[in-house]
Amino acid sequence: MAYLEAKHLQSASKAYIGTTELFFDKVFGKDKKKASHDFSTKDGVFTATGLEVVYKDKKKKEYKSLTERSFYLKNSPNVEEAFLIGTFKGSKQKTKVRHNKVTKTAEFGGMAVGTKTESKGTIFEREFTNRLKECINGKPCVGKYHEAAGWLVGQLENGGKNPIDDFQNVGGGNLSRPFEVAGSQPYIAPSKHQDHAKVLTDINVLYKNGGPPTYLSAKFGGSKTFINPGSKTLFSDQDIKDHNINTPKGKALLEMCGLDEDAFCNVFNNFGKPAQKNKNKNKSGVVKINTKRLENFVKTCIGSNYWMIWGKETGGGGVDMYWMKPSDVENKYSKVSSDVEVFYGGMNHAGKRIDIEFHNNHFKFTLNIRSKAGGKNYPTNVMLDYKDKDIIGKTTL
Q1: Beta bridge partner(s), residue 359
Q2: Is-contact 323 307, C-beta < 8 A?
Q3: Cis previous bond, 190, omega within 30
Q4: 203-224 pLDDT, tens per residue?
Q5: Do residues 73 and 39 both lie within one domain?
Q6: How many domains, in total, are found in the chain?
Q7: Domain end (from 83, 108, 133)
Q8: Is position 256 within any domain?
Q9: CB 309 within 8 A of CB 321
Q10: For 189, which DSSP code?
Q11: pLDDT at 112
Q12: Is the dihedral of CA 142, 145, 148, 151 positive or negative?
């Protein structure tokens, strides 16, 4: 469930004029059709009777009536945080609720509480699984993805040598692949790339002969990412504020990527300050690293022993399919054959992120450390994005 951010209360952005007005009108409006005074929050339904706003200059103002609407809207571009004043349903105790605990319901441009939507990736997994099942059941394999599904069934059954019994859609399992370290070697768990298939799988292929399943990792869309673990076990916000990255994981990541600790911390501590962009640019460039250490890390990011099934949203659609053979991951796909270049502040040097670029003949990689939380400066995730260049046996249908 998503919650309101400061930007939703700042009418300086045309995109949020409506939510800025609605937030105030729900508290003080007299028209019951437009203002129920009730907000869905992280802790339950809250009935608001007042509003306290903290501005970027740290000044506070408490609003008490609809007559103050014009002043509220005029000053909304400078809102830093806001607190609803009132009571939770069933309670008479007056309290406050910060804006980031207010649910972004449908009226604020989000989803109604209790509503579930499927991502494009989830839809792709289901549709592709259904098409595969049609093929093995002798039904007409027609419609979206039918050609790709038919080809893949042929590869898996290998001319009748390994007949398929069923396909299981297990994409909702969401098994974890956390960032870990052994000594000075970072890795994505499990430590052996051959063991990642059963964690990455979205569709399991079961065989009539009872042999081990084949694992399919089904993805959809234009953005390609091998890993996306949270970064809080590597460094906390306070670690970065103190310029003191002291966890084994955090220190290992910085060392592996050739990152300067002070430059790293300044990207996030000084985000938005004009002088920081030039500082980021001056610190960026090619770095010397322990190549073997980075390659060992990349192996566990990619994983092996599974089929990559990638539904393409653009470029005419279609499905990319290729087998992540363990020997190819070990000896080819994980290799670093280029310089390793660090971009503090991202490619434009002004962002709240660090990008580390390198490549080989098969993949172009971008390892980035960044915030995925709106309105938050400090990093939340470590991601290895990629573009495939020349993949052995890749078939697109």
Answers
A1: 364
A2: yes
A3: yes
A4: 999 999 988 999 999 998 877 8
A5: yes
A6: 2
A7: 108
A8: no
A9: yes
A10: S
A11: 60
A12: negative
